[in-house]
């Protein structure tokens, strides 16, 4: 597997703080993977994002993006490879219409008008929002707003998309739709997804989870292996996933296979039990 980001011994302490927000953290992220970074409030997730995107500079350690050690000279080039989708889409809208909004990142790149129109259409088509081109972004639902925000990011053709609590303001249905879309785009557009969240439920579609606490990685593994530590997640200020809690409770009365079961697997097991009764 090819690395797209390689972080080594990264440490950062805010100027007015005594304890490091990121503390000797090392992490490799691979091309086309979906990595979830989870941790409670204040664990260091946003600081790590800011370091990766070059908004702040580490006190020590290195970040390699797409083969280049990041420094003051090449950070702007590295940033063009990264797109960030934030928690509250209202804070990212700058245009009066959906298409103006998607155009924003492209205008910043100085793209000629004709090519820009094509790119906007392509990006809106990818997120199935072409019919909303002339709408005021503020008039859209939360899920639609996030799809437009994703289009804005995709239009600039990043290799890496960082989702910073991007679905935390959506209802369960809106959240599922956005996460399914991200999964599809990851596969079709060969993107690397880094999703940052304090909500473990949001990580099911990712391939790997790292749990951070006090600026350090305290657990890493596949979603099943992380969900499997169930109640121990509370040690890091995280809630045990609902399906994992349910499985623990059901195990007291029915026989279920070992290990973590996701919702689909649990449904299947319960059907089997039901039909054998
Ligand atoms: N501008 C700042 N100045 C000083 N300390 C800061 C600043 N921003 C964050 N911190 C501290 O750094 C640590 C990590 O914060 P960070 O915002 O990275 O956490 P987080 O995991 O993103 O939290 P949340 O989920 O609440 O967004 C915390 O102890 C926080 O208080």
Question: What is the fold's blueprint, element by element?
Answer:
Elements: E1 3-12, E2 22-30, E3 34-38, H1 45-52, E4 60-65, E5 68-69, H2 75-79, E6 82-85, H3 98-108, H4 113-126, H5 142-155, E7 160-164, H6 172-189, E8 192-197, E9 208-213, E10 216-221, H7 223-227, H8 242-251, H9 263-276
Parallel strand pairs: 3-8, 3-9, 6-7, 7-8
Antiparallel strand pairs: 1-2, 1-4, 4-5, 9-10
Folded structure, characterized:
Helix 6 (172-189) links the parallel strand 7 (160-164) and strand 8. The model has no long low-confidence stretch (mean pLDDT 90). The chain has nine helices and ten strands. The protein folds into two domains: 3-239, Rossmann fold (3-Layer(aba) Sandwich); 241-276, no CATH class. It has helices spanning 45-52, 75-79, 98-108, 113-126, 142-155, 172-189, 223-227, 242-251, 263-276, and strands at residues 3-12, 22-30, 34-38, 60-65, 68-69, 82-85, 160-164, 192-197, 208-213, 216-221. Helix content is 36%, strand content 21%. The strands form two sheets. A six-stranded mixed sheet has the order 6-7-8-3-9-10, sandwiched between helices. It has a four-stranded antiparallel sheet with strand order 2-1-4-5, with helices on one face. The radius of gyration is 20 Å and the shape is globular. It is of the alpha/beta class and 277 residues long. The site of adenosine-5'-triphosphate has 13 residues, from helix 1. Pfam families: ABC_tran. It is found in: Cell membrane. InterPro entries: AAA+_ATPase, ABC_transporter-like_ATP-bd, ABC_transporter-like_CS, ABC_transpr_CbiO/EcfA_su, ECF_ABC_transporter_ATP-bd, EcfA_1, P-loop_NTPase.
């Amino acid at each position: 597997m090819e690395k797209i980001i390689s972080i080594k011994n990264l440490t950062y302490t805010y100027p007015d703080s005594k304890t490091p927000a990121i503390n000797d953290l090392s992490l490799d992220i691979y091309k086309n993977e979906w990595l979830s970074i989870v941790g409670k409030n204040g664990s260091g997730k946003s600081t790590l994002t800011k370091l990766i995107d070059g908004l702040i500079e580490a006190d020590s350690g290195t970040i390699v993006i797409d083969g280049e050690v990041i420094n003051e000279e090449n950070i702007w080039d590295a940033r063009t490879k990264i797109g960030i989708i934030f928690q509250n889409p209202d804070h990212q809208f700058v245009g009066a219409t959906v298409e103006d909004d998607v155009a924003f990142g492209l205008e910043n790149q100085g793209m000629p008008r004709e090519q820009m129109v094509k790119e906007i259409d392509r990006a809106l088509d990818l997120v199935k929002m072409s019919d909303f081109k002339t709408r005021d972004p503020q008039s859209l639902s939360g899920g639609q707003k996030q799809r437009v925000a994703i289009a804005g990011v995709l239009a600039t053709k990043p290799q890496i998309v960082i989702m910073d609590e991007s679905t935390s303001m959506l209802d369960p249905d809106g959240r599922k739709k956005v996460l399914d879309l991200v999964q599809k785009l990851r596969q079709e557009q060969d993107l690397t997804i880094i999703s940052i969240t304090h909500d473990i439920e949001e990580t099911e579609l990712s391939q790997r989870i790292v749990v951070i606490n006090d600026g350090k990685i305290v657990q890493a593994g596949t979603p099943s292996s992380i969900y499997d530590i169930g109640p121990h997640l509370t040690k890091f200020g995280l809630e045990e996933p609902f399906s994992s809690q349910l499985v623990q409770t059901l195990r007291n009365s029915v026989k279920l296979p070992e290990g973590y079961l996701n919702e689909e697997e649990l449904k299947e097991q319960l059907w089997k039990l039901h039909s054998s009764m």
